[in-house]
Amino acid sequence: MTTTSIRRCGEAALLLECAGLAEAVQLAGRVRGLRPEAVDVVAAARTVLVTAREASALPGLRRRVEALLSEEPPPTQNPLPGDRIRYPYAGSGSGGGVADPGAAGGVGAAGGVGDAGGVGAAGGAAEVILDVRYDGPDLHAVADLAGLSTEAFVRTHTAIAWRAAFGGFAPGFAYLVDARELGARNPDARGGEQRVHAEPRPLPTVPRLPSPRARVPAGSVGLADRFCAVYPGASPGGWQLIGTTDARLWDVDRSDPALLTPGTVVRFRDAGGSGGPGHPGADR
Known about the structure:
4-stranded antiparallel sheet
C-alpha cells in the first residue's frame, strides 16, 4: 500500500494522503487496529486522519503507522457477509425495526434501529435497507445521463450494493459508493447464503447542479460525482435528487444517532410512487 505522504496535522494528529478512495477506506480499517495509540481514525475520499492521545504520543503513533504501511496489506475481503444483515424501519418513528421477511438475520419489532448501522462486533458489515420513493426532480435527467429509461435506472440503483465509505457535510450524512469500487462483490444474501446474481451496470459520474438548491428536504436521496447519499436534515445542497425516504438518518434518541456509519452496506428498495418531475411528490 502506498500513501503519497504522512503529514502532521495540528498538535496530536497525522494526515495520511492516499492514492484514492479504496486505499483510504482499507487503510482506515487497518489503522483502527492501532488502538489505544490511535484514539480516533477518520477516513475521507483520499485521506485518513489519525489522532493520538496527546502530542507527546504522536511520535510513537507515527512509527506504528509507518511500520503498518511497510507491511503487505491483507487481501481485500468481501465486506458484505450474508449472516449479519439487519433491517431497520423505513418509517419516521424512532421505535423498533421491522425485518424483511425474506432475509436471514433480520431484526424483529423488538430490535432497536440504533443497532443496525455500522460494523458489527465481530467485524462484519451491517446492512440497512432504505425504502425509497423514486420521485426526485432530477430523476429523469440522471437516467438520461446513464442512458437508461427511468424504470431501468431505478432497477439499477436498487440492484447496487452501496457502502458507506465515510461521513461528512452534516451529522448523519454518509457518502455511499458502489461497493465494487472497494473490491467487494454484489451478493444476494437471501436464504442465509450468498448467491451472486448478474452484476448491475455501474452508474456514471453524476455532476453536481450548476447552482445548489437553497433547501433540500430531509430524506432526499441524491447523487453527485460517484457518490450517493441521503440528506439527514433539511439543508442547502447541490446533489441531483432522485428520490425520498422516510427513514431517520440522524436521531439523537438512538444509542448511535447515525443510522449509516462507515462500513455500513446500504440497499435501496423501490417503495412505489415513482414519477420524477411532475409527480405529486417531486417537489418535496
